[in-house]
Amino acid sequence: MKTLITTLLLTLLMGCVYVPENTHSYDEKCNVMRKKKVLALEEAIPMANCSNEACALLMASYGVVTAASFVVSGSIVVISNTVYWLEKPSDCKPEETNIN
Questions:
Q1: 81 with 16: CB under 8 angstroms?
Q2: Cα R_g (the chain), whole angstroms
Q3: What does the mean pLDDT of the chain come to?
């Protein structure tokens, strides 16, 4: 059962890599451009026709590449978003709503 789940997961992710992408939005209240990084899943080289052992090796390598790209790109996204958050102007705060 464990092997089946692993094989299905690798099949779904084979040939894909995670990459960090930049997104921007304008904050009118603070008059600043906000930056944010997000993870995007991109298709890499599709799997070609292969035979038994070659397919198993190819699927295993695709799984390793996908996992490694997730770890590396995820770390870049977390660190970048932390830096963007620290750079945010401290004098710009959202409006407070009074509930009476």
A1: no
A2: 21
A3: 76
* Residue predicted with more confidence, 3 or 70: 70
The number of helices, as runs of H, and strands, as runs of E, in the chain is 2, 2
Question: Which has the closest alpha carbon to 38: 67, 72, 73?
Answer: 73
Distance of alpha carbon 23 from alpha carbon 5, whole angstroms: 34
What's the rounded Cα separation, in Å, for the pair 73 and 9?
Answer: 19
pLDDT confidence of residue 41:
83
Cβ(64)–Cβ(74) below 8 Å: no
With left for phi above 0 and alpha for psi between -120 and 50, is residue 31 left, alpha or beta? Answer: left
Helix, strand, coil % (nearest 5) of the chain?
50, 25, 30
pLDDT tens, residue by residue, 52-71: 777 777 777 777 778 888 88
Torsion of CA 45, 47, 52, 54, to 10 degrees: -10
